[in-house]
Design a protein that fits this description.
Oligomer: single chain
CATH superfamily of the largest domain: NAD(P)-binding Rossmann-like Domain
Number of strands: 13
CATH topology of the largest domain: Rossmann fold
Bound molecules: nicotinamide-adenine-dinucleotide
CATH class of the largest domain: Alpha Beta
Length: 313
């Protein structure tokens, strides 16, 4: 993508900041981020001449004037914690739905070429029909998942009613540099890495035979750009289409870190799903396929970043 005017909401977050990195040299990028979970340190080049940074809540920002003359919107800003959404569903709804609808109105009023929305495999919830296809029924188990599912429907309705082009990308388990390991709801890969680097036993809930479909953050970036450039309107899973058990993941992380620290097994957490695996055949609609067999290399990159962070703290 070149010479485009782009808005990245949530551009100071884990995934959004990698999208900014990929676009900033050849495009003009405007970030809208209230820094509620994002960080300035996530920005590689906060003073880049192509970057405009608007540190504001989407609900307060003058989206109409920000979106004037822009080509594409990558919408990543969200309240992202599943348990957080269970505790505070109305608060979560304000960002995950109210701000989305406000953004969609500004997109259609400003003739945005396409909006790419970060959705989540959480919309499948307890649906057991693996591998999960986009046509499967949504069975959301949390307000967060319901908000992502509703967000997708809002996009579809704006496409039908106003002709606004969109792709909703359902990410499975994303990992990579800049992922937050400090939140109480941190994802498993940063938790494993951080525990081992701190010479502590990582924790596995249940027997470890539950499985997930992991995907590297830079693949998510490429899927976002491909989705914007494609002619497709609709929902697309973004994953590797391969499942890995948590026990196996632990072995690989231990190998990469040359660690013999044992794992600690605790009781299964209520509400945790047993397996998650994507059908990724729809990725062809956005002309994208993730690289195969790079998991260990990607994990090494991730570990390198966590090591650096620890040393610079
Ligand atoms: N990380 C994953 O594994 C994963 C999986 C599925 C879907 N997603 C989705 O991808 C997107 C990015 O997730 P992430 O992991 O980078 O999370 P993140 O928390 O690092 O990024 C979200 C960003 O949005 C900003 N933000 C939140 N509310 C805002 C508001 N009201 N106004 C302006 N900015 C606001 C935060 O400050 C943060 O920078 C989210 O929509 C998330 O739901 C992530």
């Amino acid at each position: 993508m070149e010479n485009k005017e782009i808005v990245v909401t949530g551009g100071c977050g884990f995934i959004g900041s990698h999208i900014v990195d990929a676009l900033i040299e050849n495009n003009k990028v405007t970030i809208i981020d209230n820094l509620s979970s994002g960080k300035m340190e996530n920005l590689n080049k906060p003073k880049h001449e192509n970057l405009t940074l608007i540190k504001e809540d989407l609900l307060d920002a003058d989206l109409d004037s920000i979106l004037k003359g822009k080509d594409y919107v990558f919408h990543l800003a969200a309240k992202v914690s599943v348990p957080g959404s269970v505790a505070e569903p109305i608060y979560y709804n304000q960002t995950n739905i109210d701000a989305l609808v406000k953004l969609l109105v500004a997109c259609k009023d400003n003739d945005i070429k396409k909006i790419v929305f970060s959705s989540s495999s959480a919309v499948y919830g307890e649906n057991p029909n693996m591998p999960l296809k986009e046509t499967e029924v949504s069975m959301p188990c949390s307000p967060y998942a319901a908000q992502k599912a509703s967000g997708e429907l809002y996009l579809k309705s704006f496409n039908e009613a106003y002709g606004l082009n969109y792709v909703a990308l359902r990410y499975f388990n994303v990992f990579g540099p800049r992922q937050d390991e400090n939140s109480p709801y941190a994802a498993v890969i940063p938790k494993f890495i951080s525990a081992i680097l701190n010479a502590k036993s990582p924790v596995i809930y249940g027997d470890g035979e539950q499985s997930r479909d992991f995907i590297y953050v830079k693949e998510i970036v490429n899927a976002n750009i491909a989705a914007a450039e494609s002619d497709y309107n609709g929902v697309v899973n973004v994953a590797l289409g391969k499942s890995m058990t948590i026990n196996h993941l632990f072995e690989i992380v231990s190998d990469v870190l040359e660690s013999d620290i044992p794992v600690k097994y605790l009781d299964e957490r209520p509400g945790d799903i047993k397996h998650s695996l994507a059908d990724i055949s729809n990725l062809k609609n956005i002309n994208f396929s993730p690289e195969e067999d790079k998991f260990e290399e990607q994990l090494r990159e991730t570990v390198k970043w966590f090591r650096n962070e620890m040393e610079n703290r």
